[in-house]
Amino acid sequence: MIFRPIDLETWPRRDVFEHYLSVIPCQYSMTVKLDITDLRKRGLPLYPTMLYALARSVNRHEEFRTAFDGAGRLGVYDRLEPSYTVFHRDSETFSCLWTEYREDYGAFCAACREDLAAYGGRQSFEGRPGTPPNVFNVSMVPWESFDSFHLHLSKGDRYLLPIFTIGKFYEAEGRVWLPLAAQVHHAVCDGFHLCRLIGEVRQWLAQPGQGGPGEAPGCGETAPGHSTAHVWAHNGYTLRPARKEDAEDYYRAGFDPLDPELARLTGSRAEYSRKEVVDFFLACVDDPDRRDFLLLDPAGHIAGEAVINEIDWESRCANFRTAIFRPEHRGMGLGTWMVRFARDFAFGELGLHRLELDVFSFNPRAIRAYEKAGFRREGARRDAVRDGDGCGDDILMAILEEEWREIAKADCGRRR
């Protein structure tokens, strides 16, 4: 961190600065709505992505990095790190974390995920210790959308750095909108500067995920270059978001014909028509309350899927399932990897509190994979499903956010 003092005698903004700092102290706020439709369709994590978009623009312009240092000197930080709030549902309090800004979008999201895993469960105002002086503050209020938002800083006349507040997103006119309130000090930032920053954030959100070769890989995983979506790699296989153009290949790979053993283990019918599968797939890709990912083999052919569905954004709960379509891809550890991916994505990217699934008792391989990933048995519907001439149980398993945090913290510690 470098702090460069400003020479007031030669500073072109001196008169404006002194007027709005001392004569008529003035802070102001502006609330805008941002189009995040593409961000949602591509399954990008909302909070880390917004932190990146804001930090990216803040660090491009000196007016947003102008501040008084600990000695009371006016100057400009060479860079600012985002400081952001994390809510604790059990105590109804929050903590402040911070993550070092990185120009690479994927690296920044991965760093956010590690900080959330390491410090997100700490119930103190300073969740991550050692907050540096060069941070700007971001809060999220995901329970309500708003048209106006302003913070009253009774003793904040000399606080010059920007403050951002994000509200609850909503759908209107076929698009997804996110309210953003920006509060700045008029001594260092005029309407022109704030509108320029908001314009840059809007422009970046029109093509979210831009900003570096990596696309938010998991801790210890690789992410091949991709400009618009997450891609994860494992032993030559890749996992990426489903796209509309995948519909026909999805049908051929998984349902033409449907593997009898897969149908048995998932309780599916023996066959489905092309129209049924394609129509369902296209509807899934457009559904904002689910995330569909496809497993591709080393040749690029669809080999399976991982699905987080039935997302309840209010209660932060969801269901999920995985499937490997053909026998030749099973027994290679891919199922375990996909389960852990879905778990980490649900909590680290989507910000969920609970992830659940149901599995049949005659599928011991899947049960072992779920248990290894930290899922716990919560109950069973006894003899609820037919299996040949007999019956099997439908077992409910789930993992909670705090349980995932402990696992993620241990995993990242080992990989370091």
User: Mean of the pLDDT scores?
Assistant: 89
Name the CATH superfamily classification of the largest domain.
Chloramphenicol acetyltransferase-like domain
Secondary-structure element series: EHEHHEEEEHEEEEHEEHHHEEEHEHEEH
Q: Which fold name is given in CATH as the topology of the largest domain?
A: Chloramphenicol Acetyltransferase
State the CATH class of the largest domain. Alpha Beta
Q: How many strands, what sense, and barrel or not for the largest sheet?
A: 8 strands, mixed
Report the β-strand fraction as a percent range: 25-35%
- The helical percent reads 25-40%
| CATH architecture assignment name of the largest domain | 2-Layer Sandwich
Structure write-up:
The protein is of the alpha+beta class and 416 residues long. The protein contains eleven helices and 18 strands. The chain has helices at 14-23, 37-41, 46-58, 105-119, 191-205, 247-255, 260-266, 274-286, 334-349, 364-372, 401-415, and strands at residues 3-5, 27-35, 66-68, 74-77, 81-88, 93-98, 135-140, 163-166, 170-172, 175-185, 232-234, 237-241, 291-296, 302-312, 317-324, 354-360, 376-387, 390-400. The strands form three sheets. An eight-stranded mixed β-sheet has the order 11-12-13-14-15-16-18-17, with helices on both faces. Strands 2, 5, 6, 7, 8, 9 and 10 form a seven-stranded mixed β-sheet that branches. α4 (105-119) crosses α11.
Essential attributes:
elongated, eight-stranded mixed sheet, 2 domains, seven-stranded mixed sheet, 416 residues, 11 helices, Aminopeptidase, alpha+beta, Chloramphenicol Acetyltransferase
